[in-house]
Specification:
With 72 residues, this protein is of the alpha+beta class. The protein has a domain of 50 residues. Helix content is 31%, strand content 22%. It contains two helices and three strands; from the N terminus they run βββαα. Strands 1-2-3 form a three-stranded antiparallel β-sheet. A hairpin with a 5-residue loop joins β1 and β2. The longest helix is centred in the middle third of the chain and has 11 residues. The two termini are 15 Å apart.
Length: 72
């Protein structure tokens, strides 16, 4: 039986602030703040991708998130 996709319900969102910083939220809680080159790189990558790909990018940007070796 295939594993359920943890990103299917789109738990991530992001907000671009006036000073060009990007805040990534996981279920409405802020988890990562991107500034400078990292924020610009993230915005370039997320522009024009569909929702599932954007969720993957946000999960990767958070760093230590769901590596696949968690116990059930």
């Amino acid at each position: 039986m295939p594993e359920p996709d943890p990103l299917a319900d789109e738990p991530f969102s992001y907000l671009v602030r006036a000073d060009a910083t990007v805040v990534i939220h996981y279920r409405a809680a802020p988890v990562t703040l991107l500034r400078g080159k990292a924020a610009a790189r993230f915005m370039t990558r997320v522009a024009g991708v569909e929702a599932a790909a954007a969720q993957q990018l946000m999960a990767r940007a958070t760093g230590n998130f769901k590596r696949g070796n968690e116990r059930r």
